[in-house]
Design goal:
- The protein is mainly α.
- It is built from eight helices and two strands, in the order αααααααββα.
- It has a two-stranded antiparallel ribbon.
- The longest helix has 31 residues.
- The chain is elongated and about 55 Å long.
């Protein structure tokens, strides 16, 4: 669905029916949507794994709870640590929390380094879009763009996401990020 919207925006831009900034804002919104959907997935998986049977429980082989929790409500309260929300990203926060509730922190500690790096960079892109602060933009510049030579239009979060990677077939960085986030979600859920 997100990619279909992205493709429609690109078609409208190509036809001159919308300005470039509108397409860039769409990329930003779509990326935020994808990234927050991943965070919600992590929370639901985490809470579901904490629940021992019943509604909302998730069963995966090889996962050992450190405590038995009977309801999703209590599991969510424990996972959130008394707060109204939990920070699931950067992913090391999820891993630390997972070590408390699951032996070996599994499945969260089994996520590969490449997926963790994508999530780290995605978090920096997300922060640059959501906050637009000097700090978040400098972190994006330093840790996402780095020394990569890019044209000026691709040195902003939206331009970066719209930029095309050298691949066959050509793929935007948005497509690359969202497919990598999906790979990470599948790895956690298997």
């Amino acid at each position: 669905m997100l990619d279909a919207t992205r493709r429609r925006m690109e078609k409208l831009l190509t036809r001159g029916l919308i300005p470039t900034r509108a397409a860039e804002q769409a990329y930003e919104a779509l990326f935020l949507n994808a990234f927050t959907a991943f965070e919600a997935f992590v929370e639901e998986l985490f809470v579901g794994l904490m629940v021992a049977g019943g509604p909302g429980s998730v069963v995966m082989s090889g996962i050992a709870r450190r405590a038995t929790v009977r309801t999703s409500r209590i599991a969510r309260e424990l996972a959130l640590g008394g707060r109204s929300y939990a920070d699931w990203l950067p992913f090391d926060l999820t891993e630390k929390r997972a070590h408390i509730f699951f032996r070996g922190g599994l499945p969260f500690t089994a996520l590969g380094a490449a997926s963790k790096d994508i999530l780290r960079k995605g978090g920096l892109v997300r922060n640059a879009i959501a906050h637009k602060s000097r700090y978040s933009l400098s972190m994006f510049e330093q840790h996402v763009i780095g020394a990569t030579p890019l044209p000026p239009r691709e040195r902003t979060p939206a331009g970066f996401l719209r930029g095309t990677l050298i691949a066959a077939p050509p793929q935007t960085r948005f497509e690359s990020f969202t497919s990598s986030i999906l790979v990470a979600a599948r790895a956690l859920a298997k």
